[in-house]
Design brief:
This is AMP-dependent synthetase/ligase domain-containing protein. It comes from Exidia glandulosa HHB12029. Keywords: Membrane, Transmembrane, Transmembrane helix. There is one protein chain. This protein is of the alpha+beta class and 133 residues long. The chain has a domain of 80 residues. Helices cover 34% and strands 17% of the residues. It contains 4 helices and 4 strands. It has a two-stranded antiparallel sheet with strand order 1-2. A two-stranded antiparallel ribbon has the order 3-4. A hairpin with a 5-residue loop joins strand 3 and strand 4. Helix 2 crosses helix 3 and helix 3 crosses helix 4. The longest helix is centred in the middle third of the chain and has 16 residues.
């Protein structure tokens, strides 16, 4: 299995396809990829990009008339940390978070990643989720 990589997490072994292309590494001097061997969790990847790719763009969106704005990893990670800190200030013993929002993708992913970074598993209601959940 040359085109796969194997890693373990919580006692379960996973087989994943190897990353074949690394366009950002080839074309962007501002980007340093995190470890792609399964050893880096999603919250750790946020920390990685904050430390190693702070000037690399995460999102590009329209801003004003015919203008584009680039949200960089440094700004995005700081926003995620703010959400995380707000979630951790909650005094409940076992707080529960559900994200029900009509928001743009940047705001939604920032809130979700902030909750994940704080150690929570946010519930994101969807019409595709069955009532039994």
């Amino acid at each position: 299995m040359q085109n796969t990589t194997t890693f373990s997490y919580t006692g379960t072994t996973f087989i994943a396809p190897k990353i074949k292309t690394r366009q950002c590494v080839k074309y962007a001097s501002t980007f340093t990829p995190p470890p792609l061997d399964g050893s880096c969790t999603l919250p750790e990847a946020i920390d990685w990009h904050f430390a190693h790719s702070p000037d690399h763009g995460v999102y590009t969106y329209p801003h004003g008339e015919g203008e584009l704005k680039v949200l960089k990893w440094a700004e995005y990670a700081k926003a995620i940390y703010r959400v995380s800190n707000l979630a951790l200030k909650r005094k409940d013993e076992k707080p529960k978070y559900a994200v029900l929002a009509v928001a743009d993708s940047i705001t939604l992913t920032t809130v979700i990643m902030g909750l994940v970074r704080a150690g929570y598993a946010p519930f994101i209601p969807s019409p595709r989720v069955s009532p039994q959940v």
